[in-house]
Amino acid sequence: MSVDLHWFLPTAGDGRGIVDNSNSSNADPRTAGERAPTLDYLTQVARAAEAAGFTGVLTPTGTHCEDAWLTTAALIPLTTRLKFLVAFRPGAISPTLAAQMASSFQRLSGGRLLLNVVTGGDSIEQQQFGDWLTKDQRYARTAEFMQALRGAWGDAPFDFAGEHYTLAGATTSAPPNPVPPLYFGGSSEAALPVAGQHADVYLTWGEPPAAVAAKIAAVRAEAERAGRTIRFGIRLHVITRDTSAEAWAVTEKMLAGLDPDAIAATAARFANAESEGQRRMTALHAGSTANLEIAPNLWAGVGLVRGGAGTALVGSHTEVADRIEEYHAAGIDEFVLSGYPHVEEAFWFGEGVRPILARRGLLADTPALVNA
């Protein structure tokens, strides 16, 4: 079996250090990091990912970054085959409008859209979008949203009556071709049935392999109860170099650039986070810079100042390939990777790790590294 490799589009800014504003509602995306997320720079990242052989790029959602739909639409004519994993929130858009936007995107891009449905794990940020539901209510709404979205893509007008949505004759001018797969993540008890019953790909943040395997088993059981099959993906940063020592030296440089007060403030902010996934990320380091290698080649240092995905695969190209193979053996089919800065790290991975995975027969059919 093969794996799909995706990269990340840093629409909140980029730099050589850990960009720490990913979940900050006060962040200004025009000045974030050392490299602002201009169209010119994001084009460089997208083209680097395409040249390095990645299938697609994840584009985040939230008040901290540029809008995912608009940004990726602008990149369609500036790329050739790269797919766009567009993250968006059901609470901010109707299912019918999302169905229409996705259908249009597929036609304009030649079928290069993937969809990441984000329930939203922080009520304060959700309220910025005018969404006042509780977390469990948001997951229930997400389940309805996925049903309604698929219904609007059907061949006939679709009626739907639920607690959160009531639709009469929902449709689009033409169904998307192909229908984009729905990616979904969440670690709370309310999230797992939604994943099993409605998602095509369940995404988890980068916990140690045993914890990831347990989560996969739980979601797979939900899918089996619903008579469905589902794929699994993982979101990780990556620092890969010709030698292990070179890679770990990068982490030391990153740690040296972090403000201890910022580390403490981030740990305090997320220790009792509403998001179960965020609490799990924070628990991996507990606000301490000691013992950050929480599993072989798995470094929790990114999460010291960054919300969301907080772990990185660190090591030589062979070691990183070994860890990817280990996660794949645990059930992971898709890897959504990123690295600081995103242009350079895409090539480190594409030139160093990708050939090893190809030799091991682990890659899906994507082009080899080409000149950018």
Give the key terms.
globular; 17% strand; eight-stranded parallel beta barrel; 372 residues; 13 helices; two-stranded antiparallel ribbon; alpha/beta
Structure description:
Strand 8 (201-205), helix 7 and strand 9 form a beta-alpha-beta unit. It contains 13 helices and 13 strands. The strands form two sheets. An eight-stranded parallel barrel has the order 1-2-3-4-7-8-9-13, surrounded by eight helices. It has a two-stranded antiparallel sheet with strand order 5-6. Helix content is 40%, strand content 17%. The protein has 372 residues and is an alpha/beta fold. The protein has helices at residues 39-51, 68-75, 95-109, 123-128, 135-152, 191-198, 209-225, 244-256, 260-271, 276-283, 317-330, 342-352, 354-359; strands spanning 4-8, 56-59, 83-88, 113-117, 158-161, 166-170, 182-185, 201-205, 231-241, 293-295, 298-299, 312-316, 334-338.
Give me the secondary-structure category: alpha/beta
**Pattern of helices and strands:** EHEHEHEHHEEEHEHEHHHEEEHEHH
- Report the radius of gyration as a whole number of Å: 20 Å
Proportion of residues in extended strands: 15-25%
The number of helical elements comes to 13
Largest sheet geometry: 8 strands, parallel, barrel
The end-to-end span amounts to 29 Å
Order of strands in the sheet with the most strands? 1-2-3-4-7-8-9-13
What share of the residues lie within helices?
A: 40-55%
> In one word, what is the shape?
globular
Mean pLDDT: 92
Question: What is the count of β-strands?
Answer: 13
Q: Unreliable segments (pLDDT under 50, ≥5 consecutive)?
A: 22-32
